[in-house]
Amino acid sequence: MRCPYCNFPESKVIDSRPTDESNSIRRRRECLSCGKRFTTYETVESVPLVVVKKDGSRQAFDRNKILNGLVKACEKRPVSMEVLEKTVSEIEQKLLNSMDREVPSERVGELVMDALKEVDQVAYVRFASVYRQFKDIDSFMAELNKLLGK
Length: 150
What we know:
Layout: E1 11-18, E2 24-31, E3 37-43, E4 50-52, E5 58-60, H1 63-73, H2 81-97, E6 102-104, H3 105-119, H4 121-131, H5 137-148
Parallel strand pairs: 4-6
Antiparallel strand pairs: 1-2, 2-3, 4-5
């Protein structure tokens, strides 16, 4: 770490402690050349997650889009916002754990559908009907039969 006073490239750490929010570490340092002390903060660098759409365009991952889709699918269903928030967090965590910084939108949609299948089956069918763009009753029935295990 460069000294902000003399620009010397080396310093020693005197004290380290987490910040109040515990999202970074505060370090007191002393320059090995001029002896002056200064403070640095170390935080985890987060790489943004990018969703690759079907047309090839890219946009930043937005958890609110998933939450809004879940809210619409679960409208008038006995599913609490707490459950929906938890579901979105689990989906986001799965995407971040995949270590891929670019995720196809199809992957996001499949994760949402898998989660909805566990949360509420009616909401799952609602979401699937929009996501899979059912064209007729046969494709709708095929999805229902898969859900029922036939």
